Amino acid sequence: SVPAAILSALSAAARGGVLFKGGAALETLAAVRTFAFDKTGTLTTGKAEVTGLVCEGSEEAFLARLAGIEAHSEHPIADAVRRAAVARGLTPIAVREARAVPSEGMVGIDDEGMLWAGNARLAARMGARGEAVIPPEIAALSEGAETLVMLGRGARILGAVTVADLPRDSSKAGLVALRQAGVRRIEMLTGDRRAVAVRIGAELGITPDEIHADLRPEDKVKLVAGFATQGRVAFVGDGVNDAAALARADVGIAMGAAGSEVALQAADVALLSDDMNRLAMAHRLSRRTARVIR
Ligand code: ADP
Ligand code: MG
């Protein structure tokens, strides 16, 4: 039977909006040595904004096309693009057979043929790489510490937008509380570019050596497995391109409110309020409970 101390800790956590799938997850959390965090939608709000745009021809036609392909994505970046199109009163153009290339972007078909939207990795995959194909004004746009989303057709790049995302209000305090509770290792794992990750990290007290960028979903899993050789690992994510890492961690912690169904399924713990202070609270509770039952 489950000790009374665990039951009462589980219900105290639940009152604070932290749902554990069982007592084992609570006990494991107490022993976690490394907390690994996804960036987009986890440490950041996932409420990104389009901050810059460079394209050939009409900006309206370009943005309507980009919004058309992003209409099929659940990524926070796609949401930012769709909102930018709505703000200009644009109707997204029809894109069919759209699918996600995880941690890279989207591919689909519009009235003129194959279309893609995404980062430099996806651009390279489509044959667009180097100065010959990436227009200088787009290269310049990508020098800032913002996420670059290019729209292309094969090796031809039609234009790009930059998208910026802000840290959650609770992220900094939550991380400070975890470190104060004696958590030695905090790591950021992201599919985004390093410059963007370092800028967000600087706002949150995460140092460059704690940042792992340009990762694909399988790279996140490998890193989590690597941390696991040195003690228990918790992975905190929103389920967009990180469900496998959530599942691989000793404790998978899903952002509940913004997070996807997949995240909640792959996780051991759900943070219903998306509040990192609540994560620190749940961690303290797990430590206290572990001391009582030992
Ligand atoms: P994170 O690990 O920070 O949560 P992801 O792995 O979800 O980030 O995404 C990594 C990168 O993949 C993004 O920074 C972006 O460059 C690209 N990307 C992912 N989804 C999309 C999309 N729908 N449209 C454009 N780019 C995308
Ligand atoms: Mg994410």
Automatic annotation (TrEMBL):
Its main location: membrane. It comes from Cereibacter changlensis JA139. Keywords: ATP-binding, Cell membrane, Magnesium, Membrane, Metal-binding, Nucleotide-binding, Translocase, Transmembrane, Transmembrane helix. It is found in: Cell membrane; Membrane. It comes from the Bacteria. Belongs to the cation transport ATPase (P-type) (TC 3.A.3) family. Type IB subfamily. GO terms for biological process: metal ion transport. This is Cadmium-translocating P-type ATPase. One of its GO terms (molecular function) is metal ion binding. One of its GO terms (cellular component) is plasma membrane.
